[in-house]
Amino acid sequence: MIMFCLLCDSEEKLYDGLCKSCFLKEFEALKIPEYTTFTVCSHCGATLKKNKWQQVGYFDDEIINDAIQKNIEVNPKLEDVDIYTEITNNRGTVYECIIHVNGNVINTEISKEYPIEVKVEKGVCPDCSKFHSGYYEAVIQLRADDRKLRDDEIKEADEFIANEIQRLCKTNKLAYVTERIVLKEGIDYQVGSYNAAHKIVVNLQKQFGGIITESRKIVGHDKSRSKDLYRSWVLLRLPSFNKNDFIEYEDKVIKIEKIGSHKFSGINLDTYTAESISWKEYDNIKKVAQIDDIKKTTITNITPNEIQVLDPDNYDTVDLKKFDVMDKLNIGAEIDVIKINNRLYLLMNEE
Ligand SMILES: [Zn+2]
Ligand SMILES: [Zn+2]
């Protein structure tokens, strides 16, 4: 029985009723839709890739290629398939593309081109929707112990937190401050991400010293993940004292000289030796005087073991133990003194 090509009547070996040349001409390497889409967050430009929002390292070509690949079907008869897409034109939210397909069918190399449109759909990623709804996981509470925050501390903390947010938001979409609230007792910063809030407070403490405490409360329930939702309060209590203030600790009087992240240090005025104290001990410390309480007086006599000065309040003479650091003092010289618990201490200002 002689068979003829259904299209051109030529008489030869047929493939699905067609001669080889007609078969190859009619062969559809791909089944493609009229257009395909991808979704972009209209706030931050994140794109949806395989049901996950991607922020970085995902560029137009790749997004479009993925959008096309997920919507085409390759003819199963085609072997050694190689597909690549080319953007030929971009009109606003529409990309015109060509899909180039190479492959092998009935032992013949073929290459075909198919036009397709890729449309951008606007969406809102979950992080942006959290931001716009005012969602926050944590509150940074900035406070000072037994005193009000000073204006310069507030200004410095505001700048510090703004810089930290700038740095952290590059990798954490929830690193934002939804609200800064001025309260009688201090400042509250509502932060989208607990991790960001925690990091910021740890760094803030390194800068300002003080004590960090945290607490959290259940504020809801995420049914889809059957997880409780928490909000955390990360409190930084700045110390009651500043540099140059006087504190009492274990019956010692100490003039604070340095406030660090792990400890603070100063001069023990009973021995004129250096003293450093861990923040863990903070609650055992009492501020007893500050720089304004320093007074000037005159040295009236020096003996090998004692220094005599006038009490600046009543001009009584007071004999104080002489330490090596006082070797250079002279009779008649002016000197700073501080009175704590009715006792005078000489202040050596060389430090
Ligand atoms: Zn034919
Ligand atoms: Zn977004």
Q: Largest sheet, if any?
A: 5 strands, mixed
Helix content: 10-25%
Strand fraction equals over 45%
Strand order of the largest sheet: 10-11-9-13-12
Number of helices in the DSSP assignment: 5
What binds here, in terms of ligands, is:
zinc ion
Question: How far is it from the N-terminal to the C-terminal residue, by CA?
Answer: 114 Å
What number is the mean pLDDT? 91
SSE topology string: HEEEEHEEEEHEHEEHEEEEEEEEEEEE
Total number of beta strands: 23
Radius of gyration (Å):
38 Å
Broad shape: rod-shaped
Poorly predicted residue ranges: none
Question: Into how many domains do the coordinates divide?
Answer: 3
Structural class: alpha+beta
Task: Give an overview of the whole structure.
There is one protein chain. The protein is of the alpha+beta class. It has three domains: 106 residues, no CATH class; 105 residues, no CATH class; 58 residues, Nucleic acid-binding proteins (OB fold (Dihydrolipoamide Acetyltransferase, E2P)). The protein contains five helices and 23 strands. The strands form six sheets. It has a five-stranded mixed beta sheet with strand order 10-11-9-13-12, covered by helices on one side. The longest helix has 18 residues. 21% of the residues are buried. The site of one zinc ion has 7 residues, from helix 3.
